[in-house]
Model the fold of this input.
Amino acid sequence: MQILLISDPSIPSSQSIPSNNTSSLVPLTIGLWNANGLQASTVDDLLRHCQSFSLVFITETWLLPPARLPTSWQQFHIYGSPVAGQYRGAMGVSTLVSPRCSLPVVEFPVNCKYALGLQLGRSLRLICLYLPPSLSTAEVQSVLDSLPLTDDTIICGDLNVRLGRLVGDSRTNMRSSVLRRWCDDHGLNILNKTLAYGIPTYLTCRGHAEQVSRSPWIFLWGQTTN
Done:
C-alpha cells in the first residue's frame, strides 16, 4: 500500500501553487493484492478490508472475458489467458476504484497483456504489472521497454523480482539487474527501498512456521528521462 499526495485537477495547471499550501492536494491510497484466482463470491469480503483505499490493483485474477465483478466500485480489467481444460484463465490484472476516489479515472492503452494502465486526473499515470516467473529476462526487458512512460508515472505490481539488500531482502534473482538497470536508465526510484525497507510483502504459514517474502510487490516512481 502506498499513500501519495497529488495535485487536485480542479486547479488550472497555470496557477502557481506555493510549496507550503496543501489545500490543493488530495490523498491517493493504492492497494495491491495478488489474488491467485479471484472469485466473484469473495469480492465483498475483499472490499470490506479496502474501505480506506482510493483504488486496489489485483494481480493474477485469472478472469476471462467478459467477466465483471459484482460491485459498485468502478472496475478495469486486463483479462487472463485461457488455460486448456480449465474454466479459468491464467495471469490477468484488475483494478477496483472506490466510489469515494476524488479523481476521475480512465484507462489508457499499454498494448501489453501483462500490464493495466490508468490515468488519474489530468496527468498522473499508474501502470500495474504482473510478470509471471516463466518469462525470460529478455522477455522482461522487452515488457519494460514497451511501457509508455511520462513525467508522472507510477509503476507497481507483482514483478516476481528479488532485489536483495536494496530493499532489505535476503535473496536476489536474475530479474534484479534487469529492473535496476531499467530504473536507472529512466530515472525511476524504487520506493520499496525508502518507504518499506525490510518489510515483508507476503506472509504465509507452512507447518507451524511463518514464511515471509519481500519479492513481488514493487513501487517505482520518478521523473522519467525520456
Observations:
- Residues 144 and 163 are 16 Å apart (CA to CA).
- Confidence is low (pLDDT under 50) at residues 1-23.
- The longest helix spans residues 174-186.
- The helical segments are 43-48, 137-146, 174-186, 191-195.
